[in-house]
Amino acid sequence: MPGLFDFQVNGFAGVDFQRHELTAAQLRAAVDALRARGVAAIFLTLITDTIERLATQFARIESYRAADPVIAKTIPGYHLEGPWLSPEPGYRGAHPAEPMRAPNAADFARLQDAAGGNIRLVTLAPEWPGSAEFIATLAAQGVHVSIGHSNATAAQIDDAIRAGARFCTHLGNGAPQSLPRHDNIIQRLLARDELTACFIPDGIHLPPFVLKNFVRAKPQGKILFTTDCMAAAGAPPGRYTLGSLETLVGGDLIARGPDGGFAGSTLTPDRGVALTAQYLGIPTAEARELWSTKAAAAFGASASIDIP
Hints:
Elements: E1 4-9, E2 11-12, E3 15-16, H1 24-36, E4 39-47, H2 51-67, H3 69-74, E5 77-81, H4 105-114, E6 119-124, H5 131-140, E7 144-147, H6 154-163, E8 167-168, H7 185-190, E9 196-199, H8 208-217, E10 223-225, E11 238-242, E12 245-249, E13 255-256, H9 269-280, H10 284-290, H11 293-298
Parallel strand pairs: 1-4, 4-5, 5-6, 6-7, 7-8, 8-9, 9-10
Antiparallel strand pairs: 2-3, 11-12, 12-13
Helix pairs in contact: 2-4, 5-6, 9-10
């Protein structure tokens, strides 16, 4: 049976991957905790920060991958979520607005070099000037592009898809609590059959009935699931960080930032399989496939989860 694959993991078992104090021993402990839950591979995810600090962190983690084959096997690539996101309140979620900027190929080349060529997935907001050209550049390099933390117009979404965008990051989240009734970013993205929608099935980021409706709206084969988990996943309630953001996780296991909003999730991938089956009324084997073979195939990571 292939292991689980989660393409958006910001931290685990008390370890925050964004922290510059991250040590090799801490990363190995998080990897071991993930593997103990049946997770074969992840895309380690870094969120919005300055290009300088992101490059430093990618280089640090690459040095740990080079020194430890278990870390390297479990982290076959990276997901970069920012800094090319919408700085608008609500749309930026828990991401800091200050480092956000329009994308450019030179910045990405610097980050990709620091990451050893292993950035495999980029989440961005395509309303920034130059986004279509940037997406085309990434797609030509085999980097997957996902739309998220965005308030793009229908025309800007069209341009992004034509340029090579293929996914939506945690659809239904990364948006304000109040939106126009019909013409809003959730509806614009949900209606695009070309895009594979990725959801967080923790029952918190999306109520179960909303998740069911969203899944029904997508064509066959156009849904995936992720935890988008942070350091508190696989750890007890308490205070944790997501980069520079201080978070509090209470007995309800919701990770909240200082403003009370969500700051990642505490969902673990094995629990994600169980809740996906429960909320969608599908067999556990089918849910597990969505969290393993189908997710890995979508991002070219099948070899990392030991699929024959």
